Every structure is written in structure tokens, then in C-alpha cells.
Amino acid sequence: MADTISITCPECDKTLKAPDSVLGKKIRCKGCGATFTARGGKQEKTAKPVQEGKAAKPKKEAKAAPAKAAEDDDDASPYGVTEEKFGHRCPECANELEHEDAVICLHCGYNVVTRERKRMRKVRDVTGGDTFIWLLPGIACALAVVSLVTADLIYIILIDKDTFGGEDATISFLGGLGMKVWASVIVAFLSYFFGKFAIKRLIYEHTPPEVELH
Fold this sequence. Notes:
Number of helices: 3
Strand content: 5-15%
Shape: rod-shaped
Order of helices and strands: EEEEEHEEHH
Number of strands: 7
Helix content: 25-40%
């Protein structure tokens, strides 16, 4: 705990109490409001030069200190100086950095490594509706893949030439093995692109992009 010292105001000769950590710093007298550098003991008054031909004006009597100031004399720290922090600070805004290894100042966006200040952006909050609309194309692509694969399996297993009128029918080739192979190739091609988009949107990019407000 800091030691308490007595400091005498050079203007009104009022004795003040303050922690020894204020020595050498500018402080303000709570009695007369004068600002001076805190030193141990009685402060020396600074004499002002008297111009020739003019008599020195009599010194004004010190203003009476408010009654509350007398009560504050018993306070061990009347100026609110309780502690000093010597941690890392941002060279741009002088605010304290989050920790000693911090690169970006959270107050102004200044990068202490590149010496550049990032532009602060104001973005809109993402709602549940925004998230659903963003994921909807991915959901649609996933359902399309399931539908295509299901339809292809039904076509391969349940459809044959008899479904189209037998061997002598004109469109019986639709139930043949060759058409089933081609149908499977087309389904696999479409499922690849739909599935790729669905995985990208639903897994890797499931968060909607930020909308900047102007």
C-alpha cells in the first residue's frame, strides 16, 4: 500500500494529503483550485516579475475552502490515484491492449505489427431468417441428390422392356441395359455437382456473409 504524504499548496498554504506516487506530477488543490507540481514539504511560490512604473498588486486572499474539503483531508487518496498500470498500450489510441502478445487493438483496430489501422465496419446482426435463406439452396441440392439417386435405383430395379410393351415395342429400348447405364451416368454427373454445392453450403460455409451498414 502506498505511503501517505503531506503536500502544502503554494497558493493558499493548505496542507493536503496524497499517496507518495503523485510526487513530481501535476495535481490540483481542492481548496483554491490551483494546479502545481507535487513535491515533498512546502511548495515554493513562483514570483512574477513586476513591470516598471506599476506597483505590485496586493495578493488576493485565498478563497475559503469549502466545508467539504476539510472532511476530505482525512482521505488517504483525495485525488483518486489508487494504482498505475504500466501494461502494453496501443500506440494509436493509447488504450490498454488485451494482453502483451496482442496484435490488433480492440478499441481502434490498429495493427501493432504492420503499423496499419484497419477500417472499422458496422454490420447488421444475422437473424434466423437470414440463416435459413442462406442454407435453403444447399438443402434443395441435397434433396435433389437424394431424389435423383432414388429415381435411378427405381429405374434400374423395377423398369424393364416389358414395362414399355415388350421386345417388339418401339420404345422398348428405354427399359434396356444401355439406357440404364446412360441414366446412371447422367445421375452420377448431376449428383456430383449438386452434392458438392450442398456440402460447401451446409458444412463449410453455413454462416451467412456479413451485411455492412452504411
